[in-house]
Amino acid sequence: MTLPDISTLTPLPVLIPMLAAAVTLVGGRKPRFQRAVTMLALVLGLIVSCALLYLADRDGISALQVGGWDSPIGITLVVDRLSAIMLVVSYIVLLAVMGFAVGQGIHDGTERQPVSIFLPTYLALTAGISNAFLAGDLFNLYVGFEVLLAASFVLLTLGASADRVRAGVSYVMVSMVSSLIFLVGIAFAYGATGTLNLAQMALRLDDIPTGTRTAIFGVLLVAFGIKAAVFPLSTWLPDSYPTAPAPVTAVFAGLLTKVGVYAIIRAHSLLFPNGELDNVLMVCGLLTMVVGILGAIAQSDIKRLLSFTLVSHIGYMVFGIALSTEQGLSGAIFYVAHHILVQTTLFLVVGLIERQAGSSSLRRLGGLAAASPVLAIVFLVPALNLGGIPPFSGFIGKIALLQAGAAHPSVLSWVLVAGGTVTSLLTLYVVARVWTKAFWRARADAPEGDLADVSPSALIDESEEDIAFDDRADVGKMPMLMLVPTIALVAVGIALTVFAGQIIDITDRAAVDLQDRSIYIDAVLGPGHGETPTAAGGGR
């Protein structure tokens, strides 16, 4: 079987979910039809993304000029190994989470779960993510972020409870600030270079004075750092994500912050490869790791605890980027893929814990290993993976980053190696604490074990002490359609470990492409574009 041309497949990761969103919106009164269309769109998107990864790894970077307008004037969509990897991992996660959401029993006709809006919005979110990964110009990247913002606000406030609306407003305010800063960065970049096309901008930025170039990069880093939750721009995240429904929290925590990380990788390697702010990135990476994991230690709710570990492990990715080496970039890309899968899995497991025990608070949980051995295993595997226990992919990714840091000729990189090691040990302590309290100890030993079976909806009008076990009909029940997608993600995480050698080979080739800017520039502008990137673009 011959695969279609890569230019034919390139727009499909954006077009498929966007068209499906329109279809599901029209079919809002037919929930089964909506779910079928959504699942079909995500399956097709995953197949197309896998094909794009295969073709990009085999043939190299490909650029599509949308609408017949040649670059740098028109909209350019670019597929390289990095963007293709991000698409594949994203679609795997989005498909699994959608299966979990369907299994959670979301249906039309309820006041708090308007699924007729959920599914089209979820597909729009998918299209925005895909557009951000394929964008070949700054403004199209901005459009992808704005589609994410609009869709994520709807998903975050789904159910319209006071806590969700409050968290949604906070999230939107932070995201709007980030978007405004991004717009300022776009204006500065266009004013300095006269273009928004990333390839052409990369060439022209070489002729810009160093101070001006660093200032533009600084503005864009702030915008992307907010979206990626890099310290000190990460304080909004632990308060925004835990209030959302479990599937929404899983997608946001696992995936959305990585769109910001992707933008940092792309800007750092293509537009600003001279390393002016590498030391700043290293310090931010170190503080993100340490402050995030210290915050996780202080939490008694598993959702908030995982939100802080999410922030902490963003620091590993920033560490790899800041090294400005092929080894560091390869490790960062592998770690991004690993973390998307593992973090999403753990948040889905928390949804299962709430179904099984009625709470996600460590003060109320206990005895889950005896009550549900399957749930215990489903938690333990990704938890050990997150903690970096060998031979899991978390260990492999951290070792790759620590080796890259040890090979870097700076004292600061060694400080980061030490910080990364300590953070890994503290992460293991955090997940072991969750295991000990939620799964291993007897529930009767939990300080508030008698309050675990509380219906969140009942808390709107009643105090916790008035809620009995019988008020929560779903406690102790884990629908198979919730459990199966979670187990599937656990299996994908294990597959990432089993095939780590082949995957790292791909990330190594992706890092080579990123370090040699001429490959990207020639693919977008053509080999006869008449401009040549300076030596700063490649051999650092």
Automatic annotation (TrEMBL):
InterPro entries documented for this protein: CPA3_Na-H_Antiporter_D, NADH_UbQ_OxRdtase, ND/Mrp_TM
Xref: PANTHER family: NA(+)_H(+) ANTIPORTER SUBUNIT D1 (PTHR42703:SF1), NADH DEHYDROGENASE (PTHR42703)
Keyword RNA-binding set for record: no
Chain segments annotated as transmembrane: 6-25, 37-56, 82-103, 115-135, 141-159, 171-192, 212-234, 246-265, 280-298, 305-323, 329-353, 411-432, 481-504
Lineage: Bacteria, Bacillati, Actinomycetota, Actinomycetes, Mycobacteriales
Gene Ontology molecular functions: NADH dehydrogenase (ubiquinone) activity
Compartments in which it is found: Cell membrane; Membrane
Family: Belongs to the CPA3 antiporters (TC 2.A.63) subunit D family.
Protein's GO biological process: ATP synthesis coupled electron transport
UniProt-recorded name of the protein: Na+/H+ antiporter subunit D
Superkingdom as given in the UniProt entry: Bacteria
One Pfam family hit: Proton_antipo_M
Annotated keywords: Cell membrane, Membrane, Transmembrane, Transmembrane helix
Keyword Cell membrane: yes
UniProt topology in membrane: Multi-pass membrane protein
Domain NADH:quinone oxidoreductase/Mrp antiporter transmembrane residue range list: 135-424
Any GO CC annotation of this UniProt entry: plasma membrane
